[in-house]
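Page 42, continued from yesterday. The earlier attempt failed because a stray header line got pasted into the input along with the sequence. Redoing it now with the clean sequence only.
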Amino acid sequence: MKIFKRIIFSLIFVSFASASLAETKMRITLQLPLKAHLGQNLLVFKKELESRSDIKVEIYDSAQLYKDKEVPQAVGSGAIEAGVASITRFAGTNPEVDVFYLPFLFDSEQKVRKATQAGSEIRAILDPAIANTGAVPLYYQAYGSAIMLSNGGPMKTPADFKDKKIRVFGKTLGAFVSSLGGKPALISGSEQYLAYQRNTVDVGMTGVSGVKSRKLYQVMDTLTVTNHGDIEFIVVANDKWLNSLTQKQRDAIAEASKVAEKAVRDDMANIEAGAYKEAKANGMNIVNLSSSEVSALKKASSSVIDDYISRTGGSGGVGDQLVKAANKL
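This time it went through. Structure tokens are written below.
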């Protein structure tokens, strides 16, 4: 009987061990709450991938593991299998990624869609460059257009920016603020609520969906719809981890990425509309700019595009190529 029990125990142990070996884990770090639309989109990716493969996805939201600025290094080094970060977080090694944040360059949803779709001229330049960091792009997550948050009045003219300390989330967005006479302060998305609450900055820059998910209407009373930049997040995976997978697993990740990318891009207009509605319902003053006000801001910040081209290879360089590609859309 004892021998029989040992055999049964051994069989159970071997079965359990085999199942454990067969299961591949994919941890994904996210700075936003899971209820935010990027978190909900990761759930779409998780569902699609787990239905197609033996990969089990674990999502660590609200910067439990890494802040947004730490994601490129964490994923690139293999400390974690995957992560979500604002694409501008790769600007330290690849300054050309900030093409999406050049003032008023992507001024329509149609242009944004064409620029961010897989295989576009812009992604054909950006994705391989980002992959060289060890963090391979899986898909882009739409976050909407950049807007301004303030207290006591809107941000409609260059004069409204002058001498104001303004939260930004990237070098090029900081250059936009500086071109208008403001003082940029680089603050992580997960830290901006406290920055506004404690008056660390006078003004904020973010996407309207973040106003809803982070309840920023509790600490700011005015939202100015500037739409001066296209905010893109990117889901990246460690290249060595990806290469350790079977072809079937990699194909499943690619298919799940396509589904999730299309889902978030298609729903972006509804997401932003819902966020504006909630912001207004919670007492925020929503201010839209006139065409002349947009033109004035665009003219005042035009040097940002020239500076971007200069620091990304000059005329004919990678930045110049990206701006020309954007202008052709």
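Notes: The CA atoms of residues 212 and 275 lie 5 Å apart.
Reminder to self: strip header lines before submitting.
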